[in-house]
Write a structure and sequence with these properties.
This protein is mainly alpha-helical and 159 residues long. The protein folds into two domains: 98 residues, no CATH class; 59 residues, no CATH class. Helices cover 53% and strands 5% of the residues. Strands 1-2 form a two-stranded parallel sheet.
Length: 159
C-alpha cells in the first residue's frame, strides 16, 4: 500500500485449513508468514494486523454453525500472531497492530466494488489504511444529518 492509502501491490496468499493435520496447518501458516515478511522487506514497509482476541467467540462456539466452529477451531490466531511477531523481529520488519472494529464492513462498503476485491481483501485494505492513521468516511448516502458531529465509528456501527 502506498503512503496515501491506495493499493500499490496486491497478492492473495491462500490458506487451506480443511482436511489438514495440525502439523500441516502450522507448516502452511509458517510458509505464509515467511512470504508476507519477504514481501514487506522487498517493499520496505511495515506489516499491519488486527489485534484480535477470539477467547469470547470460542467460548460461544456451540451457538454457531458447524462450518464456522470448525474454521475457528482450526485457525490458530495465537500461532499466527507468534509466528509473524517472531519473524518480523528477526528481519527488522515493523509490525503494527490495529483495532479490528468495522474493518469488514468498511471494506465491503468503501473498497470491494471500487477495486473488485473480495471481502477479506477489502478488510485487509482497511487494516493497512488504519495502520497509516487514515480515517474511513461513511458514504454521504448513509449519513444522517444528526450524526454529522459524531465520531466516524459511530456511523459505521449503524451499518
Amino acid at each position: 500500500m502506498k503512503w496515501d492509502g491506495n493499493i500499490e501491490y496486491l497478492e492473495e496468499i491462500p490458506y487451506k485449513w480443511k482436511n489438514q493435520t495440525t502439523g500441516q496447518r502450522q507448516a502452511s501458516m509458517r510458509n505464509i508468514v515467511c512470504q508476507v515478511v519477504k514481501l514487506a522487506e522487498f517493499f520496505e514497509c511495515a506489516i499491519a494486523i488486527e489485534s484480535l482476541d477470539f477467547t469470547k467467540k470460542k467460548s460461544k462456539m456451540s451457538e454457531e454453525g458447524k462450518v464456522y466452529n470448525e474454521m475457528l477451531s482450526n485457525f490458530s490466531t495465537g500461532m499466527f500472531r507468534e509466528a509473524i511477531l517472531s519473524r518480523c523481529r528477526r528481519f527488522g520488519v515493523e509490525l503494527i497492530k490495529v483495532n479490528p472494529a468495522f474493518t469488514s464492513v468498511i471494506g465491503m462498503i468503501n473498497y470491494m466494488a471500487k477495486y473488485g476485491l473480495n471481502s477479506g481483501t477489502a478488510a485487509a485494505l482497511v487494516i493497512g489504511r488504519r495502520a497509516l492513521k487514515l480515517s474511513e468516511k461513511i458514504p454521504q448516502c448513509l449519513l444522517r444529518p444528526e450524526d454529522v458531529n459524531k465520531h466516524d465509528w459511530s456511523h459505521w456501527r449503524r451499518v
